[in-house]
Amino acid sequence: MRKNNHAIGFLRLCLIVAVVLHHSVLAYCVFGHFDHHAYLLSSAPVVDRQRWGGFDLLVRWNDTYFMALMFFISGLFVLPSLHRKGPRRYLKDRLLRLGLPFAVCVSIVMPVAYYPSVLEAGTRVSFFSFWQGYFGRFHWPGGPAWFIWFLFVLDALCVLTVLLAPSLPSYLAAHVPDGLNRRPVPVS
Question: What is the C-alpha separation between 22 and 60, in angstroms, rounded?
């Protein structure tokens, strides 16, 4: 029976909320701009006329730490999972867990998100025509889902590293404390 570390779980939850909040206020930042000639160069798919400088502070603060911390937290669990599952099953599971959401995001969610941008830029096209051209003529932007494919690449690099240096996991296990699977010590 595996015990979860509640502190890491709460940290992940807070980071997920920060990511959602970050992306939901991008349209209202003072620095926001919309490029009518190249909508992908805009700061957000849609930029509102009403803006508030407080959102700029939130976005700039989040940009300093949150994606690096998300990758770090994910990396904490790579070696134990890789050791438990083995390289082939680990990559298969990661492909299913990361590849499927990425495919859904870039083929369904992002076209829906970017369609208003194309209309705002002055291109008059039906959604179906936009969706058909999304993977070619409209440059197939992955949008915020970039981190999903990047995380899979990092996972694949970890597997490759372990395959090329099989003694590395045991070396790390001997030299890195295993505090993630223990419950936090209560402070008196």
Answer: 9
